[in-house]
Write a structure and sequence with these properties.
Mean pLDDT: 87
Membrane topology: Multi-pass membrane protein
Number of strands: 0
Helix content: over 70%
Family: Belongs to the binding-protein-dependent transport system permease family. CysTW subfamily.
CATH class of one domain: Mainly Alpha
CATH topology of one domain: MetI-like fold
Strand content: under 5%
Shape: globular
Low-confidence stretches: none
Keywords: Cell membrane, Membrane, Transmembrane, Transmembrane helix, Transport
Order of helices and strands: HHHHHHHHHHH
Structural class: mainly alpha
Largest sheet: none
Main location: membrane
InterPro entries: Bact_Polyamine_Transport (IPR051789), MetI-like (IPR000515), MetI-like_sf (IPR035906)
CATH superfamily of one domain: MetI-like
Length: about 280
């Protein structure tokens, strides 16, 4: 075994610093959320307890924490569902060259370049001009789609660029209709990637702040509620909320990854059963 060079340890050190920089704030908030009842917002900690987590579930003097959480969760599910459906449809449409496809592609990607706050302002102005109510479930939903949909489409473009068309040709040779080919051949093959698109859609929506700032209307989503709490809450209950939302985010990611693992095991089992049946 060859000895590791000095450059390896230098790069490993830089990577360790990057991980600390990335997760250090999250770990700090998690630690401070366990302050004692008389604890403050900074170190050193004044005791250790779960007092602030208990206080989080009590009636708060200001704000609507759990209402904003329900709105963010519902909005994330809405954005996730539409992102998955439109991404699959768009990815399949772009498999064939059509007039204006390049222009349409760049228009889709352009929404990632425009500053998020300008998108939020533009969507809000459009709703005001059309005399429509600015609401998290309508204008907020639309503004967040401009953020999640391009990511979903880019993933689907990469998936279909590597997709083996011989599977579809074999299905058509066996008499399958176009819809049967999509349903029984294409979708099962790309299902793990669809889980990835769904995860992108939900997580990007769940913690989106800038594109929701001017489009949520009178009811805050969770990121807006947390931002509002920073101006009037001066206790570690804010850290407790941050810790819980972080744990919830990791739970969602773990759930989606578990679904992918289960689907791959089922596909492998089905392939082995089909292979044994041919023998």
């Amino acid at each position: 075994m060859e000895p590791r060079s000095r450059s390896f340890y230098v790069l490993a050190g830089f990577f360790a610093l990057f991980v600390i920089f990335l997760y250090g704030p999250v770990i700090t908030i998690g630690i401070l959320s366990f302050q004692g009842p008389r604890g403050g917002l900074t170190f050193p900690m004044n005791g250790v307890s779960v007092h602030w987590f208990h206080d989080l579930f009590e009636q708060q003097a200001v704000g609507d924490i759990w209402g904003s959480f329900r709105r963010s969760f519902a909005l994330g599910l809405m954005v996730m569902s539409v992102t998955v459906v439109l991404s699959v449809m768009g990815g399949m449409a772009f498999r064939r060259k059509f007039r204006g496809s390049s222009v349409l592609f760049y228009l889709i990607i352009a929404s990632l370049i425009v500053p998020s706050i300008l998108v939020s302002l533009g969507v809000g102005l459009i709703f005001n001009i059309l005399d429509l109510e600015v609401h998290w479930a309508t204008s907020g939903f639309g503004s967040q789609l401009t953020w999640t949909l391009p990511f979903g489409l880019l993933i689907m473009f990469a998936v279909f660029n590597r997709f083996d068309k011989s599977y579809e040709e074999a299905a058509r040779d066996l008499g399958a209709s176009p819809w049967q080919t999509v349903r029984h051949v294409v979708l099962p093959i790309i299902a793990p990637m669809l889980i990835g698109v769904a995860l992108f859609g939900f997580t990007l929506s769940y913690d989106e702040f800038a594109r929701t700032l001017l489009t949520a209307g009178s009811y805050n989503t969770l990121p807006l509620e947390i931002f509002g709490m920073t101006t009037n809450v001066t206790s570690p209950v804010l850290y407790a909320l941050g810790t819980l939302t972080t744990v919830f985010s990791f739970f969602i990611i773990g759930t989606f990854l578990t679904i992918v693992v289960v689907m791959r095991k089922r596909q492998a089992r089905s392939s082995s059963d089909a292979g044994s049946g041919l023998v």
